[in-house]
Design brief:
The complex is a heterodimer.
Chain A (H helix, E strand, L loop, with lengths): L1 H22 L4 H8 L5 H27 L21 H15 L3 H9 L5 H22 L9
Helix pairs in contact in A: 1-5, 5-6
Chain B lengths: L1 H6 L4 H19 L8 H10 L28 H19 L13 H4 L5 H22 L3 H10 L3 H25 L2
Amino acid sequence: MRLRKHLPYLAWGLGFGFIIARAGAVRFDFIRDMFLLKSFRMYGIIGSAIATALPLFWWIQKRASSTRPTRPGQAPKLPWPHRRWTPGTLPGAAVFGVGWALTGTCPGPAVVQIGLGHWVALATVAGIFLGNLAYESAHRRWFAWRPDSCA
Amino acid sequence: MYETFFVAPWAWWVAGPLIGLYAVVFFVFARRNLGASSGFPAALEALRGADDPTKVDLSRPDDPLALPKSVRDPAPRWRVWWMGGLLLAGALDWALGGQAAGTLDLPGFTDSFPGLGLPGRLLVLALGGVLIGFGTRMSGGCTSGHAIFGISQRQWPSLAATATFFAAGMATAFLLRWALGS
């Protein structure tokens, strides 16, 4: 049943959205003050999130590679997919950074903002869809590489 | 007590470790990585009907722009549900009385663009949105996929991408403040 497969992800999204909403990652003023180096808050949040997750992921990787049979001399397989370098990795990140500073939101918080009743965020979300469509046609026309994604 | 949990923003040292724990627990239970920006192409695929698991041919090399599909994960539609959860989360925070919820504008946005009317502000947001959509799709990740999941898994492209979007964001914010005098 599709609904039973998908409903847990609604709950996962609810959890993530609520944490970032309470963290203030959905607030334009917090993001602006982060970029203007006026406030430590968002650096503390992102930094401590990585500091918490990194050792735990390391441990998961260690455990997975010790239980997985590998031939001698063969590098243990990561329990998650490798991110590939593409010619778009860094230019794309730079374009995203400009958009992040203009709107004060990354893709996830933009959706949360609509739920929060910041109705102007509908323009941001519409823009993100448009940007995706624009990238698809630009990629088909000019770029030859295989794109990477966080999927 | 209620004020601390549901109205005022959480302290950074509470929110940050919670986000980190969320990432690891999500990975352990769902056996996959997360990235908010992938929700948008997933929604586009769902609208086009391109993600129907009965129609996806896994043996044939597919469209390079399509989200990766495997036997275990044939349809990216769960990402659309996950985004629906984000929407509900915003509404929940609003209902519980979260600070700055229920204001039509974004907190602090109008002050940062003095002299700009509502159409102008909507245009700035839409333009910024286009850059976010184009950039995250080109780079293959955003703050969640690259900064949180990517760096925590020691993925070097993600670390470089994170440094790049922080630098570009800073440059833009300082340039805007200088140009607008806000």
